Amino acid sequence: AQSVTQLGSHVSVSEGALVLLRCNYSSSVPPYLFWYVQYPNQGLQLLLKYTSAATLVKGINGFEAEFKKSETSFHLTKPSAHMSDAAEYFCAVSYTGRRALTFGSGTRLQVQP
Amino acid sequence: DAGVIQSPRHEVTEMGQEVTLRCKPISGHDYLFWYRQTMMRGLELLIYFNNNVPIDDSGMPEDRFSAKMPNASFSTLKIQPSEPRDSAVYFCASSLNEGGETQYFGPGTRLLVL
Fold this sequence. Notes:
Oligomer: heterodimer
Distance between the termini of chain B: 36 Å
Mean pLDDT of chain A: 93
Radius of gyration of chain A: 13 Å
Order of helices and strands of chain B: EEEEEEEEEEE
Strand content of chain B: over 45%
Number of helices of chain A: 0
Mean pLDDT of chain B: 95
Helix content of chain B: under 10%
Largest sheet of chain B: 7 strands, mixed
Strand content of chain A: over 45%
Shape of chain A: globular
Largest sheet of chain A: 6 strands, mixed
Shape of chain B: globular
């Protein structure tokens, strides 16, 4: 069975500071990994995904994530936070045999001026 | 493309009433997913379809929930009878038929059962 653990339900950073949101996964087969962002009262929007090509994945809005198989991690980073990055972020996993996404519990990012 | 379309966006109903949520996937997508989001349980899969056929309905809470996909451009999720614990945001998503393919989410239906 697959599972996703997001460490830290709330993360607060200052504008301009590094953003680091943590995600660890558990999968018995090669995973596909995703980061989605959800703004208040909206649906989920894909930030980036890993599908077994390059381990460092660049996404929209300056976000990137690195797949580390040895650590079973897929942490999301952004060098400099903007106020507009305040939202909830979800890490998710799927694999070829099961297309549905298994989500982590989410991390709410707060950006302080 | 207009993206995934869901209706209604908001639904308030009384316990015991039937509720029907609707979804129109992105044209050409082979997979359709229904997820539910609550504070207690987070985002969880209810059911998904491939080419209109249900593949995995293990997330459907109980017999009160049913989902259909009569054609490639329409799906419904029905709750009968509804209960207050069904209050949640219900998302529909669709994707192409490739491993690791992005799922595109609709705006969700916010359901409140009184």
